[in-house]
Amino acid sequence: MKGQVKNIFIEGPISGRFIGEKIAAHQSKTIIGGHSIFLGQVRGDILQDKKVVAIEYTSYPDMALDIMNKIREDVILKYALTCMHVYHSLGKIKAGEICLFVFTSASHRKAAIEACSETVERLKAELPIWGKEIFEDDSFQWKVNHGGHGGH
Amino acid sequence: MKGQVKNIFIEGPISGRFIGEKIAAHQSKTIIGGHSIFLGQVRGDILQDKKVVAIEYTSYPDMALDIMNKIREDVILKYALTCMHVYHSLGKIKAGEICLFVFTSASHRKAAIEACSETVERLKAELPIWGKEIFEDDSFQWKVNHGGHGGH
Amino acid sequence: MAVKVYLFGKLKELTGQAELVLEGISDTDQLINEINTRFPKTKNIPCLIAVDKNIVHSITPIKEGQELALMPPYSGG
Amino acid sequence: MAVKVYLFGKLKELTGQAELVLEGISDTDQLINEINTRFPKTKNIPCLIAVDKNIVHSITPIKEGQELALMPPYSGG
Fold it and tell me: What is the nearest CA distance from B140 to chain C, expressed in angstroms?
């Protein structure tokens, strides 16, 4: 792994408090005019009459971090971002908990907003991460992502 | 003012902690799959060789809340949102501090993201709020919003 | 007939008034003329007019008890 | 020649293996055939192949010491 590759993985859910602290840490950067944030939250879907109570995430972390590094470089350059932060949960995340936190900051709002959206689409399409939907009776099925427009 | 009109105004800056608490309050809503957040932060721009140290916001609150109520109803219906929260600061907000917090939640990410962006554009175009840019020597100038695509 | 007029942003600064009570104003053109006469500095300031919290885009009659507002272009967010 | 193969998601579940060391594999088609032969349940599972953490889309030679991975379609986020 290269020296500058940043970790994005967090064991367990991402708390509101953690997100609030990351936001507050940007107060010293007075060239920022807008932040855009996307949060993925585990849905308690009903699938074949059974309720999803959690999603268990696994990854191929070395490959995921290399690809995330490339996405980060591409998007920061394309939108002239001041900064970008991405966090993805691993392990069992309960319905209602947050499993993805994408945070982009720029001088102007359009750059921050478009960069955030593009990063979300790309990481969903390109990062080797798998979700296993766990039902209330402990049975499970492997999650399938239904597109969006992908990142390729 | 109608009974269901929600206040959006906060005296002073919006803290990371407040934002984190609002996020955490959504854990019980397990039909949500994605949250989109936009944060406006006061930039320390250099204008005519002088640095902006703060923006002082004033409003015509009764009119602003009526219009925000209409924007909220339109956008929630259009994107089938689970919920929307909007906060705007009044008073003197220092460079680096957050003055706008728009928070939309939906079952699927595209609805949350597009709704957030549309709400930001509409409130900038439609809400009677004025920013006065204050320089380090206490002189000031009235802020001018440069478009985006507006909301009309 | 007396009407109350709120002034905001740069218009409040230039007039030194947050609100005024005006007599004998029967439409929005008269309102603008009266303000520009009393406060000549406001003449070239772009200005939106709200009658009972609704923006009006053309000359509009004013009735007793209505709430008027003169507003520079918005710059929130 | 021995190569290490990582298995993920549903492929890890169906094989009961997180990693395997395979002998005598010289390209990615041979890799897939070997896995399908050892673990017949994997035959109809859509599968991406990574060689040294890069996805390959056509038959690719495998060299000693490379890191291989068999991965179902991604479902992160």
Answer: 11
